[in-house]
Amino acid sequence: MTSPAIPLPVTADGAGTRRLGGRLWYAVLTAAAAFGLAAWIYELEKGLSSTGMRDVVSWGMYIFTFAFFIGLSAGGLIMASSAEVFGIKALKPLSRLGVLSAAACVSVAALMIIPDLGRPDRILNIFVHPNWSSPLIWDILIISVYFVFSVVDLAVLHQHEAEPTKLRRTARALAYVGLPTAVLLHSVTAWIFGLQIARTWWNTALMAPLFVVSAILSGTALVTLLALASERWAGFSLPAQTKSWLRGFITVALIIDLFFVGCDYITVLWGNVPADRSALNLVLPGGAWSWTFWGEWTVGGVVPLLFLLVPRLRRLPGALGLAAFLAIVGVYIFRIELVVIGFVNPLTQYPPGNAVGTYNPATSSFQLAGHYAPTWVEYGIVIGLVALFAGMVTFGYQRLRMASAPARPGRPAPDK
Amino acid sequence: MAAKNHPTTPHHAMVIDTSRCIGCWACAVGCKQVNNEPLGFWWNRVLTTAPNQSTALKEPASENIDVPWGIFPNVELAYLPVACQHCNDAPCVKVCPVQATFRRDDGTVLVDYQRCIGCRYCMAACPYGVRIFNWGDAEYAPGGAVGYGKDYVTEGHLVFEPERPKGVVEKCTFCVERIDVGEEPFCVEVCPMGARVFGDLNDPESEVSQLVNDSGGAQLHPELGTDPNVYYLPIRKRVASES
Questions:
Q1: How far apart are CA A162 and CA A182, in angstroms?
Q2: Cα(A157)–Cα(B157) distance, rounded to whole angstroms?
Q3: For residue B83, what is the nearest residue in chain A, using CA coordinates?
């Protein structure tokens, strides 16, 4: 696995933190990252018993956040590459931001796996004794390739930006490689779950397409948010035409995403196979995890669609940003639902169920239906890594001078 | 034990006669003792089921063990002891990224405690829920390590140590240190009803071969194609009760 906690290639001058706001931003991010690091050290000391995971729900927040960041990453690159491959001129201003976001996301995703390991000290075993039948090995391979690719792509795009005639063909060729790589990255991550016969909730051929479309959705939404934030605070110029392409991208991806989820529901509901139904019943209204259903279909579904499609709503200032934000929230909830329900839905209906793996006086060592709630350690590490992501994007944005030309050094952020 | 009149490597298998199981948990407790399993760990457990339900299709009668299905006097109750099924096509072996979980030629599926990175993919992949992770420092009942008490290495892998390290996955080993010297797994030895039989499926004369072939030994979740080496004999109908 790559350990890419390094800043992106630096070619520019060090015109970095000039303003107080910038310093404050970095201070907050540093504090959050330090908190995450402290939480990880605590976890190393105590073992994974400091998390909310146990034998019944044996993967939790690290894994669904990992899958979420992989999606954000793949989506960012898919959007950036599409600009070249499909010749969408309006998206070109976002190419570098998309690739920067992709590189930062995939780094954070790779790092997210490490606190999930019981024995991070043995991580090199992955290279010493790889088992090629494991989707996890293929995922690590594609993550590594993808990280290297996105860094190279970013460097090339940066050069191309500086001298538009130079490296034009290379940038174009990279886009043709980047698009399938990004699709593959997310498909392989989907197969970690989708190929498993043990858990019917995961075992569907729709998993990879669903992951890819939700990646395009969340990745595009993230680049939209980054672009809007840069426009607001860091002198990025976002043409109206680009915004309307982003709106279109998000709308179509969201509709296809909900369609795929609906396809899975109808297959399970009509078939009525008990093991499949018991998983879906946890999610549908009335189930113990129905908040994920509502989160996905209302907060991350209908509401953003209204702000994207209804003419009166979508003309409101901030409508696109709100819709993008809610779509990201919806995809995150989908990731939670996907990973956790696979475990919560019991493998056996028979008491006493499965052993939990830790001892608590006066409570059973067994669980029939699994329970899961993350602890502060898990929140802490995730918050720290999100801060790392934000720091990488801010740093990259400044160092690679992504702000539009007139907005360069010394100029205060344009007020809207 | 199996007769030794054939040259091939043994193919170890276990047959559990559910007609004989009384749900006493001696196998589960014996397993805990011989393998020094910490508090909260169960490599082996006894599920309360209805007769001849090999898969989890029926709603449980209760969240508690030993509660029968039905209304008195028409009640039914059976038990299903479940530990690692030692699958021939084991999902855990396929998903382990570092080959820490492996299958020996005799059919035994084992974990190398020195190689496991603790990713727990095997626990996600196992359809039988028999794998246990060492979440933190193990807690033991007072009195020190019990059971086999030594490290055991096979084919260059450390597959048993009296106290497993924090952060690795463990599970039933078919008592590999015992079967390699011709003894039976401990659960077979301690079962007071003689419900468990262990032996060599490659030997057509062995008791396990005969039970599997002639008495309708069935695997758990046969539809998944994992091809376990643990077989269950169905409940044989008794004389209908007079009413």
A1: 26
A2: 49
A3: A354
Q: Answer yes or no: is A410 within a domain.
A: no
Spatial distance between the Cα atoms of B78 and B100, rounded to a whole number of angstroms: 35
Q: Which residues of chain A neighbour B57 with C-beta distances below 8 Å?
A: 274-275, 349
Please give the Cα distance from A8 to A101 (Å, whole number): 11
The answer to whether residue A254 is domain-embedded is yes
CB neighbours (10 Å) of residue A5?
Answer: 13
ipTM over 0.85: yes
Number of domains in chain A: 1
Per-residue pLDDT for B3 more than 50?
no
B140: nearest CA partner in chain A: A359
Q: Where are the domains of chain B?
A: 12-233
Residue A234 in domain = yes
From B230's Cα to the closest Cα of chain A, the distance in A is 17
DSSP B23: -
Which residue range is the domain that position A36 belongs to? 20-404
* Both tokens assigned to B66: 């030993």
Structure confidence at residue A402 (pLDDT): 82
Cα distance between residue A153 and residue A77, in whole Å: 10
- CB interface of B with A, residues 170-209, below 8 Å: none
pTM for this predicted structure: 0.91
- DSSP structural state of residue A87: T
pLDDT tens digit string along A171-199?
889 999 999 999 999 999 999 999 999 99
The string of pLDDT tens digits covering residues A344-366 is: 988 888 889 889 988 888 888 89
Structural domain contains residue A414: no
Q: Does B163 touch chain A (CB under 8 A)?
A: no
User: What is the domain-level CATH number for residue A274?
Assistant: 1.20.1630.10
Nearest to A47 among B82, B136, B224 (CB): B136
- Residue A357: its chain B contacts at CB < 8 A? 40-41, 132-135
**Facing residue for A117 by CB, picked from B39, B118, B131:** B118
DSSP code string of B35-99: TTPPTT--SSEEEEE-TT--STTSPPS-SSTTPPEEETTEEE-EEEEE-----TT-HHHHH-TTS
Architecture of domain B12-233: 2-Layer Sandwich (3.30)
* Mutation target among B21, B62, B93, B135 for the A interface, most CBs of A within 10 A: B135
Nearest to B40 among A47, A117, A358 (CB): A358
